[in-house]
Amino acid sequence: QGQPVESGGGLVQAGGSLRLSCKIPRAITSVFNTNDLGWYRQTPGKQRELVALLTSRGTTTYGDSVKGRFSISKDSSRKTHYLNMNSLKPEDTAIYYCTMGQNWGQGTQVTVSS
Nearest-5° angle of CA 97, CA 12, CA 14? Predict the structure, then answer.
């Protein structure tokens, strides 16, 4: 009921782009603008890592490996936030999870082929 839902993952060639979406369910949309919004990713055998964070104050933070290539944004009217990914590399292959505060989605697979 309170779980964000990711979409937009898939298979893309290196150098390509994808946009991931994170739809916040109605049950928790009232706090959309007062919570931090984020994207994390995980690959087998590795710890989950921060990809991008958009705080409720509007500041952004990016993981070092994605700086300059990825960007996070939100649409408050749609209660959705996005991760725009450009110049994708095979090492970006992972399951991507979106968050709103302490609420996590189930993840969406992104695979980048070389």
Answer: 105
Tens digit of each residue's pLDDT (9 = 90 or more) over 13-69? 999 999 999 999 988 888 888 899 999 999 999 999 999 999 999 999 999 999 999
The answer for residues whose C-beta is within 8 angstroms of residue 36's C-beta and 6 or more apart is: 53, 54, 55, 56, 99, 100, 101
11 contacts: CB under 8 Å, gap ≥ 6: 111, 112, 113
| Secondary structure of residue 113 in the 3-state scheme | strand
Burial 57-78 (b: 16+ CB within 10 A, else e): eeeeebeeebeeebbbebeeee
Query: How many CA atoms within 13 Å lie on the side-chain side of 86?
Result: 6
